[in-house]
Amino acid sequence: MRIVLFGAPGVGKGTQAVRLCERLGVPHLSTGDMLRAARREGTPLGIEAGIYMDQGKLAPDALVLQIVEDRLEQPDCRQGFVLDGFPRTEPQAVALDEWLAEHGTPVDRVVQIVVAREVILERLSKRGRTDDDQDVIAKRLEQYERLTEPLIHYYTARGVMHAVDGLGTPDEVFERLVALCQ
Ligand code: B4P
């Protein structure tokens, strides 16, 4: 099963992706985690991405595509995966489709986790990551609405778009998600 988890910053994508991967026995591909790991390792790619992340901006498409395609090539992705936080722009979605079409493995489901803006702000203010500062959160939400949300139309047109309510306990949200990803 090849699943894309989609949604605004702080809706619970990372939280749910970990659980879904355990349930389905597939790897968790979080571009946020990959970029933070590259940054900790001090690679040129990680250092460049960090400049954008600290400002609440999306990292450049070419940079993100490079790490995602390297990861998708790994043998553990052959039986499926959960993509968390990718794609976030139309060029990323198009590149993903092209890569998957070449390998004969299209996306099975794109699931948007939906949570009201006030709840997102409350969750992120509690988390305390370096990019969870109020001004940076506002920028991340602006980037999501402008660059990422239009992908709902892209995936709806391909017949793979679904949505779940992200309000409730992580267990409740997980049950809704699993019902869509059998
Ligand atoms: P991400 O790491 O993807 O960060 P995020 O959008 O905030 O989502 P995350 O998964 O961490 O949060 P979650 O909702 O699980 O991206 C960080 C940055 O990396 C981006 O801003 C960008 O700069 C860069 N980046 C990443 N991918 C990119 C791409 N493809 N292209 C370009 N740039 C890219 O959780 C939030 C909080 O809510 C947590 O504290 C959690 O405990 C809590 N929570 C979760 N579920 C809950 C529930 N049901 N109830 C209460 N709290 C809950």
SSE order? EHEHHHEHEHHHEH
Classify the oligomer: single chain
Strand content: 5-15%
What is the number of E strands?
A: 5
Q: Quick check: average pLDDT?
A: 96
Strand order of the largest sheet: 2-3-1-4-5
In the CATH hierarchy, the third-tier topology is known as Rossmann fold
Based on the structure given, which CATH architecture is correct?
Answer: 3-Layer(aba) Sandwich
Q: Largest sheet, described in full?
A: 5 strands, parallel
What would you give as the CATH superfamily?
Answer: P-loop containing nucleotide triphosphate hydrolases
**Helical stretch tally:** 9
CATH class: Alpha Beta
How many structural domains?
1
**Ions and ligands:** BIS(adenosine)-5'-tetraphosphate
Q: Helix/strand-derived class?
A: alpha/beta
Name the poorly predicted regions: none
N/C terminus separation: 9 Å
Structural commentary:
The chain has nine helices and five strands. Helices cover 57% and strands 13% of the residues. It has 182 residues and is an alpha/beta fold. α1 packs across α9, α2 packs across α3 and α4 packs parallel to α5. The longest helix has 15 residues. Strands 2-3-1-4-5 form a five-stranded parallel beta sheet. The model has no long low-confidence stretch (mean pLDDT 96). It is globular and about 40 Å long. The protein has one domain: 3-Layer(aba) Sandwich (Rossmann fold).
